[in-house]
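Sharing a chain and its predicted structure for anyone who wants a worked example. Both blocks are below, sequence first, tokens second.
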Amino acid sequence: MPRNWEDIPIDEVLNYSEGNTGKMSQYERIMRNKETLALMNVHASVHDLKNTIGTSSGRLEQRVLSLEKTLDKSSQSQSKLQWITIALTIVIALATVAYTWTTWQTVLVQKEANRIQVESQNKTSNKQVKIAR
């Protein structure tokens, strides 16, 4: 048997069938040691996994906070845009009312001008008729 227990093949340990209790106890200790080493490896892997998850969740939390800030800025911009849109709509409505009033006044003035022109033409043609008689 090799002196180093790590050099003993697992098949030899598992298939040992002699009645030597010293060797059986040694194989049992070897198996317990291998089990302990395997569990230590699992423990180390779980610990690494825990650290990785912690790091990932920290990064994810930072990204969520960054996203919340971006959404807040976007919300503020959207609010400003809505107020600007409302203000522009009011300005357009007021400009439309002013244009309509100005157009109406122009129509009234033009109508008055037409009436004065017709009266002027009638007076002029009446004078010409009187002069011609």
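Comments welcome. Residues 13 and 28 are 8 Å apart (CA to CA).
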